[in-house]
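Sync notes, pocket subgroup
Present: LS, DG
LS reminded everyone that the earlier model was apo-only. Rerun requested with zinc ion included. Inputs:
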Amino acid sequence: MNRQEKALALAEREREEIKRKENFMRLAIAQAKAARRAGEVPIGCVIVKDGAVIARAHNMRQKRRLATAHAEMIAIERACRKTGDWRLNGCEMYVTLEPCAMCAGAAANARISSVVFGAYEPKSGACGSHLNLLENAGLNSNTQVTGGILKEECSRLITEFFAQKRTSEE
Ligand SMILES: [Zn+2]
């Protein structure tokens, strides 16, 4: 392969990888929509191991009346139960909104290998927007972060939810 062919092959692989991530993000979006139907803030999460989904969850703060019932926390709990191990090495977490400090910390503690999120959360996002807890030597975290996968669709879910909420409260 010459240099140009190599560059083309690399670009093709990157496109394939983005498509793969988008497919799993669509499953997280389906979870976010389930949250919306249940009257919860529409945030969804799936955890993937060896190319298969091992846990799905959505935000359940209202239903559980629990501040820690974020989609990612519930998905981590379910993935650990499924694998019978608190370590989720080799697992990828897909979540529609950039994780907060609690969830990013939990992902690092669970040794999740990769966090992929949709919409950026400038106010409280802890995966690069406001804080950067992952990819952080101080936390001894080796978790890779990819942001912005299907971000328009993910952020539309949230903004529409709060716009509707405001209208119904007026
Ligand atoms: Zn969170």
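DG: Residues 3-37 form the longest helix (35 residues).
LS: Strands lie at 44-49, 52-58, 91-97, 114-119, 144-146.
Action: DG to write up.
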